[in-house]
Amino acid sequence: MSARPRPHFYGGLMAGDQDRNDTGELWSAPSFLTRIMGFSFFASLFSNTYGLGSVKLLVLGSIIETGRRLCQWLFERLRFQYSITIQFGEGDPTYEWIILFLTEHNVWRRSRDFRVTAKNSSRKWGIETSPSSQPEGSADYVPTYELPQLFRWNGYWLEIKRSKGTPTYTQMGAQSLSTIFITIYTLDMTVVSKLVEKARLRYVEVSRPNVIIHTADTPHFGPTFTWNNVKCKIRRPLDSIILEEGVIDSIVGDAREFLDMENWYIDAGIPHRRGYLLYGPPGTGKSSTIHALAGELGMEIYSLSLAAGFVDDSFLQRAAASIPKRAIFLIEDIDCAFPSREEGEHPMPLLPGYPGMMGLGPRLPSRTRSTVTLSGLLNVIDGVGSEEGKLFFATTNYIDHLDPALLRPGRIDRKIQYKLATREQATALFLRFFPQSYITFEDSKVSSVDEKQSRLGELAKTFSQGVPEYEFSTAELQGYLLSCKKHPEQAAIGIGAWVEQERIERKERKEREIERKAKEQQSRDEVTQMQFANMGGLGMMSKRGGGQKVGGALRGPSMPKALPGASLVSLSTDSLSQPDMAFTDGFTSDSDSVSVSTLPTAA
Ligand SMILES: Nc1ncnc2c1ncn2[C@@H]1O[C@H](COP(=O)(O)OP(=O)(O)OP(=O)(O)O)[C@@H](O)[C@H]1O
Known about the structure:
Blueprint: E1 9-10, E2 13-14, E3 18-20, E4 26-28, H1 29-36, H2 40-45, H3 49-82, E5 84-89, H4 93-104, E6 114-118, E7 139-143, E8 149-153, E9 156-163, E10 168-170, E11 173-175, E12 179-184, H5 189-207, E13 210-215, E14 229-234, H6 247-260, H7 262-268, E15 273-279, H8 286-297, E16 300-305, H9 313-321, E17 327-332, H10 341-345, H11 374-382, E18 390-396, H12 404-407, E19 414-417, H13 423-433, H14 449-466, H15 474-482, H16 488-534, E20 538-543, E21 550-555, E22 597-598
Parallel strand pairs: 13-16, 15-18, 15-19, 16-17, 17-18, 21-22
Antiparallel strand pairs: 1-2, 3-4, 5-12, 6-7, 8-9, 9-12, 10-11, 13-14, 20-21
Helix pairs in contact: 4-5, 6-8, 9-11, 13-14, 13-15, 14-16
Bound molecules: adenosine-5'-triphosphate.
C-alpha cells in the first residue's frame, strides 16, 4: 500500500479523499473545487504545507491592514469630532498673516528643504539664519514647508500641513498656489478666531515700517482671488512729497476723517467708501502721494493695472471683493479702460471677423487698451468691493478721457490736480535734496551750520529762478539733481544749461513723434485701401485732415454689403450715380465717421 499524503482539511472534505456523488460518479476534493469553483490554484495551495503557510500570512496581513485602517478611521473620526481645521489660500491676505505667524513660531525649524532667492522687495517669509532679528546676507531662505508640522500654542496642539495647488499656466509661466491647513485640537471656535486675530495684529505690527503693496500679476480663477504678488516698500514720509501748499495735508485729513466716521456713514445710510482721482502730467507725484498716505494711515495698497490683458470685468469684480477692510484700492492709469481721443479718431483699420481681411497688412501699433468695460468699472466702484472702509484711488494723465459717469460724486469724491513744478516746489525739492549733513561746499569758508544753511538758501533761490514755472515735472527736476548729488553749487549753476538742453531734446522728440504719427497714418490708409480692394471693389480711401472724416471713392461690381466692425454714418452722395449704394447696408454704428463717395462702376 502506497503511503497516502496527509490530507488537508477543507470545508469538511479531505483533499485526496475519494467519494461518489449522487450519480455515483467518482470524484475527489481538488477536482470538486476545480469543477465547482474553478480555483485549481487555491486547491493546490491546500495540498502542501507551503501553501498553507502562505494563506496564514495572507490572513494575518489582512487582519493587520484592516486593524490599521480601522485605527486610522477611528483617529480621523475623533479628529473630525474633536478638532477644527482651517485653510488659508495663497493670494488671500490671511495667508500672509498666518505665514508670518508660523514663521515667528519657528514652525518650520525642522525643514530641510529651502528655496533660496536673492533679497528683493517681494515679500517672502524666510527663516532667520542669524540670532539677530535681521536675516543675514543678501539671500532669503524660504522653507518649502513640505512636511506636516506639529506645535503647541496657548495650550493647544496645532497641526500644520501645506498642500501645493495644481499649477496654473499663464503667460508668465507655471504658477501653483498653495494652501495651509491648520488643525487645532479643540472644539472652541474662539480659539480659531483668537489665533487668526493674533496673526493679523502681528502682521500689522511687523509691516508698520513698510508699505505693503499687493498686485495681481497673473490671471487666476480659484475660489479665492489672487493678489499674487506682495511687495514691501519703505514707508515714505509725508513731507517728502512736495506739492502746492496744503494739498497733501488736505488729502490726509480727508482720508482720516473718512476712516474715523464709519458709524456716521452707517447711521446716515451712506456706503462707507471714498473715491479720489489724482490727475495730471507724469512724474508729478501722484503715485508717491498714495504710497506716503498709505504709510501714514497704516493701510495696505491693492494695486491693479487695467492694462493687463487678463483683467476683465469679472476679474476686476473678484479683485475688488477680496480686498480686506481698511485698505486702499488703487487703479493706476484708469484712462486705459477707455479709448483715447487719438484712438477714437483712428479706429483699428483691420476689421476682425471679415473673412477677406485675414492676415491682411500689418497690425498697427496702438495703446494698450483694457478689456474692462465702463459699466464693469462703475459696478465695481459702486458695489460691495468698494465699501467697508475702503479708499478708492485712481490716477490718470488724461482726465479728459474719463467718462463723466465715472467722475460723479459718490464714485469720485475728490479730484486732485497735479501740475508741473512751480518755483516754490523747485526750492523745496532742492532743500530736501541737499541736507546739510551730506553735502560739501566748494567754498571752504562755508563751515558752520548757520553758514551752510544760509548758503543753501541762496543756492536754492538761484536754482528755482533757473526753473521755468509749469514746464518740468518734479520727477524731471529730481533726475537733474541726481546728476549732481552732494554738489549743490554745481546744481544751482548748471540748471540754466540743463533747461536749454532739455528744451532742445523735447523739440527733437516732438518732431520724431510727428514723423512717427505721419508714418502710422500712412500705413493705416494703405491698410484701409487694401481692405476695400479685398472686398471686391476698387477702393480708394484717403484721410481728410487727419480727423474724423474719411473721404474717398469706391467703385466696383461687388460693393460690400456689410463691413463688420466698421461704421459709416455720413455718406456723401454728391457723385452717386450707380446703384452701388447697397453696400452701405449694415453700417450702423455711429462711433466713427466715414464719408464715402462712389464713382460710376468701371465699364
Ligand atoms: N511732488 C513730488 N514730490 C516729491 N517727489 C516727487 C514728486 N513728483 C514726483 N516725484 C518723484 O518722481 C518720481 C515719480 O513720481 P510718481 O511716480 O509719484 O509720479 P506720477 O505722477 O505718479 O507719475 P505717473 O503719472 O507717470 O505714474 C518719484 O521718484 C518721486 O519721488
